C-alpha cells in the first residue's frame, strides 16, 4: 500500500508538469496522436504512461515512436508499438483518448487507477516494464522524447530505453525482435536486411542475369529519416547502384515539402530534386518516417508528370512473385512429391485502385478489404499463411504465419539433403529469404525497397514493364474541411456513409452518372478533414465526380463560409 501511495504522488507530481493545452482535444486516430509539435508535450507524456502500463500488463517490451510521418515538419505525433511489433491493440484506444484528454492531474490519476483495476495491472512497483523509444528527425522530437521519458518514469518499475533517431519500422522491428529473444539492435536490422537481400539476389536465375536490367535506382528520402538510413544500409550491400536525394542533410530541403511518398502519390508529379535528367530511370520515394514506399519514373523532359507505381502495384509485384514460388514448390516432379498447401491472402482498402483489385482477382487470388489504417490491414493479413497487405499510398508488408515458416523450414531441410539446388529447393529458399527481408512487424520502406529490387531482378523487369502489369483507372482524391468530421459515420470497410442520413444516396446518384464510377468519403483519422475518393474511366470524369461529391459533403457538413477544397 505504501508503494501505491508513492505511485499516486509520483503521478500527480509528474502530471502537474505537463498541463493539457486549453481547448485541445486529442484522438488516437488512424496512427496514434497527431498535432502541432508545440501542442504535444502533455500528450506524449501521457503516451509514456500508456506505454508503461501496456508493458506492465503484457510483461513484455513495448515501443513508443515520436513521428508525424508524412505530415508537415511543424507537426508531430506519438504511437505505441505492442509486444509483437504491431500497432497498439485497438481495445486500449478509448483509454488512450481519455488519458490524453484528462483535464487535471487528479483526473489523470483516477483514470490510471480505475483502468489498472479493470485490467488487473499492478501499479506501485513489484513488476517491471521496458519501453523502447524512437523518434524521427523533426525538430520538436527531442523535447517530446523527454516528455515521453518523464511519462514512463512516472510509473514505478518502468524503464525507458532511448534507441535514438529511427525510422518507424525500425522501432517496430526492434520491439518484435527483442520480445522474440532475437538480436534487436540497429546493426542487427541492417545485417538481416542486407543478408536476406543477398540471398535473394544469389537465387536470381542465371538466364535472367544475362539480360539483367539497369541496377541504378534514385531514391527520394522526403528529407526525413529514411534517406540517411538507406545510405548506411547501402554500405553493406552489393548489386545495386543507389543514389539518395532529399536525404535530409542540412540545406537539401524541408521534410515532406514537395517531396516524399505522400506528395508523389497524391499529386502524381515529380518531387523536388528530380527533373529532366531522370527521364526513364527507376525512382522511389519514402515518406518522412520511411514506412511508406512508392516508385515512379519521370515521363518527359518538358513536364513534371510521372508514371506512378504505387502501393497497389508493389502489392501486385509481390503477389505475382510469391504465387510463382508457391507454384514451383507445388510442381509434381517425382514420386517423392508432397503437396505444400499455403493460404495466400491479399488485403486492400477502398483506396486501392479498382484496376489493381481486378488484376489480383484475375490471377485467382483471394482479395479482402478492411478500413483504412495499418492496424486493420495487418490484423486481417495475420489470418493467412501468407498475407500481403498494402495501402495505395505505399504502406504495406508480407506476413508469414509461424506455422507456415516452420513447415517451410522442414521442407527446406528435406530438400537440402535430397535435392539441393533443385527448383523446389530454390523456391523454398527464396520464400524463407523474403520472410527475413520483409519487415514482419509493420510496412517498411527500406525492406520493401530491397524486396522490390530483388523481385525486379528475378523477373528481369524494368520499371516500365512492371508498371504495365495493369493500367490504373484515373482517380482523384480531395479534402473537405468541415465543422465536425466525426459527423460522418461509415460502414462496409468505409465504402458506405451511414450518417448523415441521405448523403450516401446523393453520392450514389452522382456516381451513377459516370462510366466505371466509384466514389466514397470518410473522415480522416490523421487530419481534421473529410476525404473524398473518386475513380472513373477518364481523368476528367474522376475529377468531376470527386468535385461534385465534395460539394455535397460541404453542403451537408461544411461551415457557412465558402468551400475550402484542396
Ligand atoms: C488516404 C490515405 O492515404 N490515408 C492515410 C492516412 O490516414 P487518414 O485516416 O486517411 O488520414 O494516414 C494513415 C497513417 O499514415 C495511413 O494509414 C492512411 O492510409
Ligand atoms: Mg509514415
TrEMBL record:
Metabolic or biological pathway, per its Swiss-Prot or TrEMBL entry: Nucleotide-sugar biosynthesis; UDP-N-acetyl-alpha-D-glucosamine biosynthesis; N-acetyl-alpha-D-glucosamine 1-phosphate from alpha-D-glucosamine 6-phosphate (route I): step 2/2
Record keywords, A-Z: Isomerase, Magnesium, Metal-binding, Phosphoprotein
Alpha-D-phosphohexomutase C-terminal domain segment(s): 479-551
Binding locations of Mg(2+): 69, 287, 289, 291
Cofactor note: Binds 1 Mg(2+) ion per subunit.
Family annotation (InterPro entries): A-D-PHexomutase_a/b/a-I, A-D-PHexomutase_a/b/a-I/II/III, A-D-PHexomutase_C, A-D-PHexomutase_C_sf, A-D-PHexomutase_CS, AMG1_II, AMG1_III, PAGM
GO function terms (MF aspect): magnesium ion binding; phosphoacetylglucosamine mutase activity
Coiled coil: none
Annotated ranges, domain Phosphoacetylglucosamine mutase AMG1: 184-294, 310-461
CDD domains: PGM3
Reactions mediated catalytically: N-acetyl-alpha-D-glucosamine 1-phosphate = N-acetyl-D-glucosamine 6-phosphate
Pfam families: AMG1_II (PF21405), AMG1_III (PF21404), PGM_PMM_I (PF02878), PGM_PMM_IV (PF00408)
Active site per database record: 69
Family statement drawn from the similarity comment of this UniProt entry: Belongs to the phosphohexose mutase family.
Job description of the protein: Interconverts GlcNAc-6-P and GlcNAc-1-P.
Name this protein carries in UniProt: Phosphoacetylglucosamine mutase
Annotated source species: Phoenix dactylifera (Date palm)
